[in-house]
Amino acid sequence: MSEQNWRHGRRVAIAGAGPGGVSAALALIKQGYDVRIFEKTPEPKPLGGAVLLSTPVLAVLRHYGVDVGPSFGSKTLVEFRNNRGKVRARLPFNEGVEAALGIEGWHYGVLRSTAFAKMLDLLPEGVVVPNHSVIGYDDNGETVTLKFANSEPVEADMLVGADGIRSKVSAQAFGDPELFHVGLRVWLAWCEDWGGLDRSIGAITHAKDVQASFFPMLHDGEPGWEWWVVEKSNEADAPPTDVEKHLRERVSHFADPLPQFLDHTDFSSQAFRWEIYNRPSLTRWTSGRVACLGDAVHPVSPYAAYGMGMAIEDGYFLARALGGRSLADPSQIESAFARYERERVAYVNHHVEFARKLGSQFHHAARPVSFVRDLVFDNTKLLQKLLTKDYLADAEAMSLSLEELHVR
Ligand SMILES: Cc1cc2nc3c(=O)[nH]c(=O)nc-3n(C[C@H](O)[C@H](O)[C@H](O)COP(=O)(O)OP(=O)(O)OC[C@H]3O[C@@H](n4cnc5c(N)ncnc54)[C@H](O)[C@@H]3O)c2cc1C
To answer: Which end of the chain, N or C, is less packed with Cβ atoms under 10 Å?
Structure first.
């Protein structure tokens, strides 16, 4: 490995080239650091399917140089509905946020691989070091040395743990994550657009204990749809073998247009099963010369539709807190890490815990409770109020605080 561009006091090693690690790298390079991402696989690859990204995330990506123009994603109004199609809540757009960020709407649907490839394209050659599986580190207070399964150790001034839900870095820094299966699985699928559906709206739709949902998205500028099913699952049970049959049965209880998506999906390459794990929230994400981000410290239930977004934001906030200062001085690192934690930990934990609570309320409520829940959600504005207060309010406030990303 060349020692060029690996200057003492500016060396940042990142474990994991997922969206969080790549975002941190792009932001840190912009701040003048020398960055290397050590990735365990031969090539960084995002998980399958599409994601919803919110406009502050798009503003961060735009700051890195990603073209977030009309071909980047599909602007989506997100509605919550019951399985008969009745609208229970609508995530409104905030005009102040739209004007400040210069991006319309709030959610954009985009194929993960498309968004991720655009981020990877911006990384200078040689930043990603593939086939390097991090197994631990030594932090002696002056430097931090990464240890790998099959390669020589590497010394750096700072380590970013962005190695996902089963993070080795986070486990060493903060102990056993105590991961638990939340009793849910997601079937994520996508298909091409076939015309005829309103492409301005996505819907998160609930029956008694199953969710089936969809939103419009773009993949490489082409129109498509993401659709998914969330259902109860037991870790010990084998998953269904005939995925298409299983999902057709599940979706048969839902109003149009949901069943249509299945007719346009290739189940051998466009549908993915995802068992959902979570962990108790952490109060610290940094230790010594190590900072963690993304799923390494806060795996998210799909109810937030914000895990990739939050991992990208974390990388940006971490670099902003460091602000280009020398990493040779431990007190500079300490104050930057304190700022990073102040700006991110409570905000993210709130979103993760709210998402977990929604998942539990929609899928694990006992029969009389689920009956009352549906009655209340169908006939009052309670769900709208919960989403506005617990999901949108602080995300909008955070967006307005990112003044350096504003267009006016
Ligand atoms: C069903 C489902 C739906 C979702 N939908 C959305 C959505 O709509 N919007 C959204 O924003 N988010 C969504 N998410 C969440 C999102 O996918 C994750 O939160 C996001 O991928 C986290 O990014 P990350 O970079 O922290 O971790 P990861 O994406 O897990 O990346 C970690 C990287 O580290 C590498 N790695 C792992 N171990 C090591 C090691 N020891 N050494 C070196 N490298 C290592 C891995 O190979 C990988 O490249 C969803 C998640 C689920 C489960």
So the answer is: C
